[in-house]
Amino acid sequence: MGRQATPLGRPRDPELDEKLMTAALLEYARLGWGAFTMQGVARRAGVGKSALYLRWANKEQLLLDSVESVALTLRVNVDTGSLTGDLTALATALLEHFLDPVGWATLRISIDVTAELTDLRPFQQRIVKALRASATGAFARAVERGEMSADTAHKPLLESLFGAVLMHTLSCSQEERAHARTHPGEHVAPLVDVIVRSAQPTKK
Description:
By secondary structure, the chain is mainly alpha-helical. Helices cover about 70% and strands about 0% of the residues. The model is unreliable at about 1-10 (pLDDT under 50).
């Protein structure tokens, strides 16, 4: 499932590409794989199908590139100087992801894969890989600083953070969602604190 080669003589328009990929994710979030079509994406984006087929040969390639564009926003690898700061940056990216309608497309893909409704595991793994890469960097730096033991399991910590942010988003009222969009730090701080406390080295 590689990227579709750009036709010669037709320079790509990054803004149109982004518009089409956003439309693809929104269409998938609403309909799922079974009803996901190139025609539906084109209609949602307000363009002809030819605009899609000039860029992607089929809906699999379109969705793969669209998911990859989302995964890029979750690759948070900034060294803030502390595990709290690093995980806050990652948690904030996750919160913003789930607050965006586009983010629900990746969640629906994960649900469809888990329920074995369709074989979209390569798409799901793009998101998982991005999250793991971001968390691995944060945890490695925390070990170097002495903020956590080298033998601390990373996977449960990442799953706890991901689950906490997702559950927080699900439980928010409409007013709380609006507040989270403008003050994400206030919403992720308590969640990050739990993870950081559990990662701290045990005092002997």
